[in-house]
Amino acid sequence: MKSKKDEVPIKGPKEIIIGNPDAPVTITEFGDYESEACARIHPVVKEIMETYEGRVNFNFRHFPLVKIHQKAHKAAEAAIAASQEGKFWEMHEIILSNRKNLGTISLKSYAKEIGTTNKDFLNNLINGKFGWNVQDDLNEGLQLGIKDVPAFFINGKEVKGNITLKTLKEAIDEALNVKKKTKAVA
């Protein structure tokens, strides 16, 4: 029997940073794994990460629209479960590319495909071990006023309007310029 002391702390979505953790700009996306719009914006995020390599990082937060996407919540749990083994980005990618096939057994097979080794992966999904992490993200998104996905924030400032490569680049460039000015004044 494991004691409380033996339990490994869960790495929550806020702590899952893709890219340089010390980058001056953090891109936060609140998204839903069954959303067509989130799937369409993903290549843009990848391009931004390449274009601004070292200067930006990415944090994906879960905002499943459960009234219309019944499997999005469980998919988010699977991404968090994979992140416990350092495989968030791989799981994120495979879930987005298979967003019409997100049953629990499929999620387990995706986890195996990306190389997760946790023998309890399926049990954790079935038992909702990471469900509260998804709920925390959802609650934070609601507090921020999010109603639809994808929703983007650059260094905590919401990117309003139609989200495109151009609008994200403009927001990132603005944030980088603010950081430069702040350093010059200091």
Properties at a glance:
five-stranded mixed β-sheet; 48% helix; disordered N terminus; alpha+beta; Glutaredoxin
Description:
The chain is an alpha+beta fold and 186 residues long. The chain has one domain (4-185): Glutaredoxin (3-Layer(aba) Sandwich), CATH 3.40.30. Helix content is 48%, strand content 12%. The chain has a 5-stranded mixed beta sheet. A hairpin with a 2-residue loop joins strand 4 (151-154) and strand 5. The longest helix is centred in the C-terminal third of the chain and has 21 residues, at 165-185. The N and C termini lie far apart (54 Å). Residues 1-6 have low confidence and may be disordered.
Taking pLDDT < 50 over at least 5 consecutive residues as the criterion, the unreliable ranges are 1-6
CATH third-level topology = Glutaredoxin
Helix and strand content put the structural class at: alpha+beta
State the helix count.
Answer: 7
CATH architecture: 3-Layer(aba) Sandwich
Percent of residues in beta strands: 5-15%
| Major sheet | 5 strands, mixed
Q: How many independent structural domains?
A: 1
Span from first to last CA?
Answer: 54 Å
Query: Strand tally, please?
Result: 5
Cα shape: globular
Find the CATH superfamily: Glutaredoxin
Mean pLDDT: 91
CA radius of gyration is 17 Å
Please provide the ordered H/E string of secondary-structure elements.
EEHEHHHHHEEH
User: Helical percent range?
Assistant: 40-55%
CATH class category label: Alpha Beta
* Strand line-up in the sheet with most strands: 1-3-2-4-5
